[in-house]
Design goal:
By secondary structure, the protein is mainly alpha-helical. The chain has one domain (16-106): Orthogonal Bundle (Multidrug-efflux Transporter Regulator, Chain: A, Domain 2), CATH 1.10.1660.10. It has helices at 23-30, 34-42, 60-74, 79-106, and strands at 21-22, 49-50, 56-58. A 3-stranded antiparallel beta sheet has the order 1-3-2. Helix 3 crosses helix 4 (79-106). This is Transcriptional regulator, MerR family.
């Protein structure tokens, strides 16, 4: 086996999906409480991985989602509505990405409204 095919713990530092943060640290990083993170988990917005001991572990990607939820909640949006907004924002972003790919792949110019 060559050294280039082995994964080291340091390789995970750039992985947005690696569950590197404990609940306490994750809550601290986004300025929320562990109860807020549990509420996001109950709403299925983010589903933390569990350590061998059963403790919740969060990735950087999940923390970005949780931080967005916190922004919405801080602005007065109920948690369940904030979760739905985030899901819809994600779906819209994905649809826009797919649309851009389809337009780029078709090689067709956009119709000119003045033609």
């Amino acid at each position: 086996m060559t050294g280039s095919t082995r994964s080291t713990p340091a390789d995970r530092l750039d992985d947005d999906d690696y569950p590197a943060y404990t609940m306490g640290r994750a809550a601290e990083m986004i300025g929320a409480t562990p109860a807020f993170l549990r509420a996001l988990g109950e709403a299925k917005l983010i589903v933390p991985l569990r350590s061998d001991g059963g403790h919740r572990r969060y990735s950087r990607y999940q923390l970005r989602i949780a931080a967005r939820a916190r922004e919405l909640v801080d602005a007065g949006t109920p948690v369940d509505a904030a979760c739905r907004i985030i899901v819809l924002e994600d779906q819209l972003e994905e649809a826009q990405r797919l649309n851009a790919e389809l337009q780029a792949g078709s090689g067709e110019a956009k119709p000119n409204a003045q033609a």
